[in-house]
Design a protein that fits this description.
There is one protein chain. This protein is mainly beta. The chain has 7 helices and 24 strands.
Amino acid sequence: MRILTLLILSSLSFPLLAQLDLGTHFIRGTWQAYQSNPALLPQNRITIALPSLYGYGEVSGFTLNEVLEENSQGQTLLNVDKAISLLEPQNYIRDRVDLGTLGVGFHAGDWYLSLGHSIRQNAYSKYPKELAQLAWKGNAQFIGQEIQIAPRIGIQAYQEVSLGLGFQASGNFTLGARIKLLNGVGNISSRNHDLRLFTSDDIYQLTVNGDYGLNTAGTQLRYNGFSDIDVDLDLATFNWSNTWTNNTGFALDVGASLRLGKLELAASILDLGQINWKEDATSLAIKGEYTFEGLDIFPNVWSDSVSFNNIVDTLEARFKVTQTDQSYATILPTYSFFSANLHISDKTAVGILAYGERISGEWLPAMALSAQTELLKGFNLGAAYVIRNKRFDNLGVNASLRIGPLQVLAATDNLLTLLQGSKSNTVNGRVGVNLIFGQMDKEAQKKMPDEKDFFK
């Protein structure tokens, strides 16, 4: 992959960082809800979490049904011009993949202990509309203008070993914490984010000015000059052959829950931490001002190889890309959950959740309304209405089924994606399987001497 493709289309080619699903938080008493708050303890004495999968992806700006059109020959084609016209001034692409390999947790008196292992990839790209316009129709449309084209990029894959500890201070109040040892597999993250382009009407002069850099670790980006750049950013292509690398870090989850009669309040903050990248860590940087005369550079990216190679030779001669080997650190995106859950009866509950994600200096909020009920013994069904990213059409469903010691869960916040995928710009879903043993005896749990029902 050549340098222009990397800079112009990076935000479209990377599998990129994303939010967590919200419906799972309300499947109370399960290992999966426990992952959203270390104080929401599983209801069984022993839980063994078998391999589980969570995935999330989102593209802002448009949906497929808005930009796919059928021509006179009956072919369905992408209308790129329309897609670009629907973009916001700033746009993003995100995705997240979590693979829970194995976990175990058990109650010991007032304490709950857990141990788990997961493989995670999360990423985030934010890019200006002008970047897409530039890639598609070149810089002639911006004569006399200076435009900012620098994308923000962050992608990382890592393993996570967690040790959790929960304490039930009473039948009403629970505290929980989870410390995580992180081991990084691969990372690409941008910095400085200043890359400006000016096209003058004087002899059609193009000037690129800025300060932009990429930090990389692992073997996912290989740079050997403008004409030889390779990027592999798929979860399956990360090199997982090394059991453990020198890229290590720590993170912390903290949470609390309070029961006031039929009302349960819960709050948690997840992934307070960072990864230190040392193994195969490299820094690439472009800094300064570079001028090209009489060149409409970007449409030639799509033309014949001879023209493109001439452009590459010009870039090689003008741009000064510095490459240094140095370690660096990346802060994990931080997630917060604040919820209230009202138990209408022993089998039915309704709830509300305020969610937030802190990533790359931005705060991304969301909100969910939930209803859960036990339809049959061992079978629970729930629904969630989710408001996130200025979209109000997210209706989710979730279900859990227990057969003997086997518990199976499935959840999505976007039922529309399953029914009409072309009308949605978001997809997420979770599936999990647990082995559970020994139901907790609620009547035997301690109660505060002055416990009162909040609604009495």
